[in-house]
Amino acid sequence: MKKVGIFVLLIGIFLLFSILFVSTDFVDDGTLVQNVTDCGTLNKTNAIYTLNQSLTSLFDCIEINATNITLDCSNYDITFGNATGGFGIVVSGDGGETGIDNVTIQNCYLIQNESGFNETAIFFGSGSENAVVYNNTIETYGNESNGIELGDDSVNANITLNYIYTNGTNSSGIVIDDNGLNTVIEDNLVLTLGDDGSGIFIMAGGSGINIYNNLLWGMGNRTISNQAMGGIVLEEDNDDLNISSNIIAMGHISGEESGIDEDASWLVAGGGYDTAGIWVWGDNSTIDNNLIMSFGELGNGIYISEVEGINITSNFIATLGEQGHGILSEMSENVPLLFYNNLIGTFGENASGIYLNQDSYNNISSNLIGTVGNYSYGVFFNESSNITMVNNIIETGESTSYVLYLNTSGGNLIYNNLFNTSTTGSGVYINDSDMSDFNTTKTAGTNIVDKSYIGGNYWGNALGTGYSDSCTEADGDYICDSSYTLIQDMEFIDYFPLTLTTSYEEQEDSPDSPSGGGYPLFKPTEEELINGYTQNLFKNWKILFNVENESHTFILESIDEKSAKITISSEIQEAIFSVGQEKRFELSGDNYYDLLVRLNSITSSKAEFTIQEIYEEVTDQTEENVIGEENEEEETIKEKMKWWKILLIVLAGIVVLSLIRYILPLKNKKRKLKRIKNKILFKGT
Q1: pLDDT tens-digit map of 383-401
Q2: In 29-173, at which residue ranges do the beta strands (DSSP E only) sit?
Q3: Confidence class for position 563, pLDDT limits 50, 70, 90
Q4: DSSP secondary structure code for residue 597 in this structure
Q5: Rounded CA gap, 107 and 55, in Å?
Q6: Are 77 and 39 in contact (CB under 8 A)?
Q7: CATH domain 521-633 topology
Q8: What is the pTM of this model?
Q9: DSSP state of 632
Q10: Were 317 and a residue from 301, 338, 427, 519 both cysteine, which residue would form a disulfide, CB within 3.0 to 4.6 Å?
């Protein structure tokens, strides 16, 4: 009897051990709609699986090994992994080697155990087609642990609206392995805190990949010299990619500088060393309309190396770190690259708006570039040749900085740019360089300062005493009468420097005056005035008209290619018109407009005006900018250059607001928002 009791006790202990410590894996029942109650394998083709509770595994949790499966986690947690590895969800029939087609994973919250290592939250095996990863939230903490990864040779994947946080070193948010084709990566939020981790990493051989409208923030440093790190990284042999409308920040301002709580250690730590907002080793891709901010030393906005066929257009870039260039291009020789219409501000020392190192045949056009730090340059040419640089506006902020720096470079064509230097002289530094041209042939056309001839460049300075600010121009073409030698005793000359001023005043033969003698005076009839009276006027010509039996005089005071200034009296009112503009005038003191004036055209120093008698009540909606003593001047050089001084504040605000926009939806995930927020704000504590 005693032996029986011992046997029963042992059986009870065994059963208790089985209940407590042996996993009860999910068993697929083969139906097309199933609830998932535990980790396990999903293997029914065309089935829809739905989590109805949170799951935990110390290694892999969910394996999908059949096609056309949808897994909807209903925002439940999947906790996975340990120090030896493990996937949260793996889509493969053989443990991660071979992929499965037409699988959708959505609404999952995947959390890696903090002891995890060398893991991926969602992984598709090689050759998977038509993968969809939608609206998932992912936290990984181990080293070499990625958020979402597609194995080699994936095709037609769509990765959209995911929230990804990685904390370990060499851990990236989204990774596309070699030879990925036709992938859409859109509307994702990726925060990477560890060193050597990138937001989106596209390995070699990718093609047809569209990376659009993502918010990417990397806070670590690059420590692996042969591995790229950035918000977005394209490795070699990538082709035909579009990177558009993303917001990217690398590094961060310290707590002391930003006025934010210094206890938030990630804010104090800095970061972003030797990284780039977008890092490109691939070819034939477009990078456009991205907002990029880099805080770290050697942190560039866009870095490209040994590439061809890259178009970088309409990006908004700010760098704050020392040697942080807006665009850094290296060793792209004999292949044309386009840098067009970018807004670039650099705020650290030794930082250039665009830095070319051993490049040739690039086109740099219509960019706005400003530098603030010492020894910083608008465009730096190092061993670079046959570059065309046209229609750019460049300003420097320190006396040690130059708008252009040419080192061992030559054969470049630089014309129709507006340079506003903080140095004395031209603001150009040239060392050991062959000849470059600083003008093209003088031709008719609107130039960089809105005058009528294209030729050389506008050479201004911060004091308004640059060569173009003060040169002599007496023949009315707004080209300085003398050429400009950029550096004394060197044969670098702009033969057609531009200016905004002229002493020339065109003389025109006047027709016989209707009133006989003096400047012509025209007198429309009452009917003509009511119907609208049109007349061509040269400077000082007049129109005499009556409104409510009171005489008034309309005089053309001055005229140039773009605008005309007029005076109306008896009680003097002045106004400046651009072509096509119309304004109303109140002449009789009864709070009703009496006269409508329109400038129709300007040709050969002659302005065509139409004046018409009207009767319209003066209201806030119709009140015109009619001036008395006020003088409306056209936009000055300095006003054109003010944009970059607020670039940093604007861009920082956009990044922060966008981050808030993406994180707020996580509020519906209850306690999870608080956890991920605390991990971000108190990294390392």
Answers
A1: 999 999 999 999 998 999 9
A2: 33-36, 40-42, 48-51, 55-56, 62-64, 70-72, 77-80, 89-91, 104-106, 109-112, 120-124, 132-134, 137-140, 146-150, 158-160, 163-166
A3: confident
A4: E
A5: 14
A6: no
A7: Tick-borne Encephalitis virus Glycoprotein; domain 1 (2.60.98)
A8: 0.78
A9: -
A10: 301
